[in-house]
Amino acid sequence: MADDVLGELKIAIRAQMDKLPDDFKAVQGKVLNAAGSIAKGAAGVIAGGMAVAGAAIAGLGKAAFDAAMDIDSAFDTIAIKTGTTGEVLNGLQDDFKAVFTSVPTDVETASAALSMIYDRTGLTGDALQGLTRQMLELARITGGDATTTAENYTQVLADWGVNTEDASAMLDTFFVASQKAGVGVDDLMAQVVQFGAPLRTMGFRLKDSVAMFAKWQKEGVNTTQAMSGLRIATAKFADEGKPVQESLWATIDAIQSMEDPTQALSLALDVFGARAGPVLADAIRQGRFGIDELKSSIEGAEGAILNTAQATMDWPEKLEMVKNKITTALEPIGSKLMDVASTVIDKLQPAFDKLGPFIETTVAPAFDHLADAIIRVSEGDIEGGIAALFGDAAADPGAAVTAA
Questions:
Q1: Quick one: three-class SS letters along the chain?
Q2: Where are any strands of DSSP class E within 28-186?
Q3: What is the pTM of this model?
Q4: 144 by DSSP, 3-state: which?
Q5: Angstrom distance (rounded) from CA 110 to CA 129
Q6: How big is the CA angle at 214 (ends 232 and 184), to the nearest 5 degrees?
Q7: How far apart are CA 116 and CA 148, in angstroms?
Q8: What's the pLDDT at 390?
Q9: Which of 125-129, 239-243, 290-294 has the highest mean pLDDT?
Q10: Strand, coil or helix: what is 368?
């Protein structure tokens, strides 16, 4: 009995052992299938990752190339407008980058303003960067054109002999005067240049002149007529051998203090002329030469432009500055790509040189034949169209054989 049971057990085990290879093969197949699926999935992930990485690299390359083009355009502007080369040009390029990354502006505006200021003042380094940055911010907060303002202001500096170390503070003076009087900065600059010589002859300092013109514009004084009268007075005092500055202010004090307006007008007509006399008599008696209050308000103007710019710096301006920093950071990569592109074009240039004659001698005539053939076929001349396209031999094969 026990032997029979043992025998059956052996047979059962043997039967399971006989199936074992098949079981292993089945398991192996499942494992391999699972591994294949995993590998295929991994390959898909890797391929997808590579595609994403490739797209990112391509996008980075495009951005770097565009950045290099922008910066190169700015460098070209600086080189052309300043006429500099070598180390001086390299220094101006560094100055441009420092300004461009610290102000919400564009490459054209920044490079043009910097070039104008360098060309007119000779400033470099921190001094050039500071004045250019200040000029760009002034244009932004006032809605002006930075290049125009830079041109006007450098004329002021040259005409009035302002020291370059005082240029920044004086620009703040113009800005504050324009704020207090509600007049344009560029207008004030143009006027102090236009009338600079007579104003200096009459003893006006630059700040005095800025305050006076700002006050006159605010209160409606005809500046052209008033200055014409002051010029007449200057010439009169000089002819009489009198000190111009003292005589002018003595006349102004006398007109202002006279109780009888007729007498005041008579004196103004005598000193300032028939045309400007009434204008200046009214301006003097209305206190429009009293510029002490406005002068005191612009005395502490230093830093006003950059402080106002900082106070008005919102997210669009900050985003523009981030963009400028990215552009400057990507520029070296883009420059390398431009060098590669330039090398490739140089290598292909001989082929391009041959392409023109090939098109002229081969491609262009072929298009002419094709156009002639289309016109003839459209007019019903099938044989003529074939002849135009392939020549007379195609239209008359027999003639071709005979000719052969």
A1: CHHHHHHHHHHHHHHHHHHHHHHHHHHHHHHHHHHHHHHHHHHHHHHHHHHHHHHHHHHHHHHHHHHHHHHHHHHHHHHHHHCCCHHHHHHHHHHHHHHHCCCCCCHHHHHHHHHHHHHHHCCCHHHHHHHHHHHHHHHHHHCCCHHHHHHHHHHHHHHHCCCHHHHHHHHHHHHHHHHHHCCCHHHHHHHHHHCHHHHHHCCCCHHHHHHHHHHHHHCCCCHHHHHHHHHHHHHHHHHCCCCHHHHHHHHHHHHHHCCCHHHHHHHHHHHHCCCCHHHHHHHHHCCCCCCHHHHHHHHCCCCHHHHHHHHCCCHHHHHHHHHHHHHHHHHHHHHHHHHHHHHHHHHHHHHHHHHHHHHHHHHHHHHHHHHHHHHHHHCCCHHHHHHHHHCHHHHCHHHHHHHC
A2: none
A3: 0.69
A4: coil
A5: 10
A6: 120
A7: 9
A8: 67
A9: 125-129
A10: helix
CA distances 347 to 65, 192, 263, 343, 344, Å, are: 20, 58, 88, 6, 5
Q: Return the pLDDT at 334.
A: 73
Rounded to an integer, what distance in angstroms lies between the CA atom of residue 193 and that of residue 274? 26
DSSP secondary structure letter of residue 104: S
Residues 6+ apart with CB under 8 A from 217: 181, 183, 187, 188, 223
Residue 168 and residue 162 in contact, taking contact as beta carbons nearer than 8 Å: no
CA–CA separation, 141 and 143 (whole Å): 6
Q: Which two tokens stand for residue 334?
A: 């883009």
Hey, is 404 helix, strand or coil? coil
The tokens for 31 are 């494992």
Rounded distance between C-alpha atoms, residue 72 and residue 68, angstroms = 6
pLDDT in tens, 314-365: 988 899 999 999 998 888 887 777 667 667 766 666 766 766 676 667 666 7
The Cα 116–Cα 108 span in angstroms is 12
What is the model's pLDDT at position 151?
95
Each residue's pLDDT tens digit, 298-325: 887 889 999 999 999 998 889 999 999 9
Output the pLDDT for position 217.
Answer: 87
Distance separating alpha carbons of residues 292 and 289, to the nearest angstrom: 9
Q: Position 84: which residue type?
A: T
**Residue 227 · residue 195 · CB < 8 Å:** yes
Residues 132, 167: Cα–Cα separation, whole Å: 11
What is the full DSSP assignment across 171-197? HHHHHHHHHHHT--HHHHHHHHHHTHH
